[in-house]
Amino acid sequence: MTKENRLIKLALTTGRVLLTNGAETYRVEDTVKRMLESRGMEEVNVFVIPTGIIMSTLDEGRNYSFLERVNPAGIDLEVIDRTNDFSRRFTSSKMSLSDAEQQLEALLATPSYGRVIRFIFCGMAGGFFIFLFGGTIVEFLIAYLASSLTVLFFDYLTKYKINFFVKHLLAGAAASALGVLSILGAHAIGVQADLNMIIIGPLMTLVPGVPLTNGIRDLISGELLSGSAKIMEALFVAIAIAFGVGIVLQLGLGIAA
Amino acid sequence: MYYIQQCFYSLCCVIGFSVIFNLPRKLLMPAGISGMVGWLVYVLIQPLTTSFIMPSLIGSIVVGIIGESFAYVKKHPATMFTIPGIIPFVPGYGIYYTMLHIVEGDVDQALMTGAQSLFIAVAIACGIILATTFMRKLKPYLLHLL
Q: Where would I find the Threonine/Serine exporter ThrE domain in this sequence (chain B) (predicted)?
């Protein structure tokens, strides 16, 4: 592989890592562009949509164009932070290509939170939402547990690379199934709790509020194509969750009646 | 007392979501604070207005300003603080509800919640962009004042 091809591959891999982990469109375009320009490439044009990166550039009169296919996989701020830092170091120093390739490789093996910490904090995310909506302490406890379990279940599904629609459908179904079961349990021991309130918590960890807002942010900044794509994704995630919850609630109410 | 409670709940909530988004450990607290102040502003403004857009807009402007300031102090991208920060008022539940209404065949309700959630999302995005733009332009003057 020639030096130019290696450089382009490095820049595109950096872009792909950013985009896969949910970085903003402008950040990906900017990063790829700067990395290439810092090593003397000219007329760099980068076009980013959530599922791919297209770029073309000139170097000593030769024309290069590449297409990198990307599969978005949720938001991972740690990876975005490190990749951003890496690209800044790359553009501001005379780092060699093989060094940079190694660093990028190392960066992908980022530590994430352990399963126990994730269990505790993800419960917090869904649980405390109940209080923001005006819930009671019993509902909080149930929602806390249900949110933790939902997130772990979702992580498990993610690990097996299940299609995003099916994944959200199953997770939504699991969240509401937990809700229905715990309501039945609570009523059996004589404690009152509201089903809708309990389902809100775990669902908050799944619903695509941030992707929707990011999509609209892209639209407002003039990234019309990627903005529309992100909004469509958010809509379909919401449909999947609604399907999952709808199915379980229909079944659950049928059983209860 | 009510406001202190709301602060505590939103702080815990935002930190929880930050862990879901795998935010680096040393940034958890700043992100939590930006979300907490944003939510506090949101609940303070809510009784003053009948509009459902205003609290989200002003809340997210506050989150954006705090995010940009933390970004400058901590030398990390502002996204690290704004994405968790907007969580408490992001209309995730709204779009879920829209879809649930459609699945249940209640189109009128679906249109209403759908339009509301869409405009809340627009307000939040707009607020963040306003805050970012102003902070970038005003930064030299603000640093001069300090």
A: 6-133
Question: Which residue stretches of chain B have pLDDT < 70?
Answer: none
Q: What is the DSSP letter of B47?
A: G
Write down the pLDDT at residue A60.
80
ipTM score assigned to the predicted complex: 0.85
Record the tokens describing residue A71, joined without a space: 């599969």
Tell me the CA distances in angstroms from B141 to A142, B134, B135, one per residue in order: 50, 11, 10
What's the residue count for chain A? 257
Distance from CA of B92 to the nearest CA of A (A): 4
Q: Please report the pLDDT score of residue B34 as a whole number.
A: 92
Question: Residue A123 above 60 pLDDT?
Answer: yes
> Are B96 and A75 a contacting pair at CB < 8 A?
no
Which chain A residues are closer than 8 Å to B113 by Cβ?
none
Quickly state the pLDDT bin for A254 (edges 50, 70, 90). Answer: low
The separation between CA B26 and the C-alpha centre of its own chain, rounded to angstroms, equals: 20
Q: How far away is chain B from the Cα of A179, in angstroms, using its nearest Cα?
A: 16
Alpha-carbon distance of B66 to B29, in angstroms, equals 13
- Residue A58 identity (one-letter amino acid): L
d(CA A221, CA A228): 12
The C-alpha angle with vertex A216 and arms to A215 and A219, in degrees rounded to 5, equals 95
Q: What are the sequence ranges of the domains in chain B?
A: 2-88+124-145
A69 dihedral zone (left: phi>0; alpha: psi -120 to 50; beta): beta
Determine whether the interchain pair B93/A209 forms a contact, defined as Cβ–Cβ distance below 8 Å: yes
- Show me where the domains of chain A are located: 3-108, 115-256
Q: Specify whether the CB–CB gap between A132 and A139 falls below 8 A.
A: no
Handedness of CA A153, A158, A164, A165 (dihedral sign): negative
Write the residue in A78, A117, A235 that is nearest to B24 by C-beta: A78
Polymer length in residues for chain B: 146
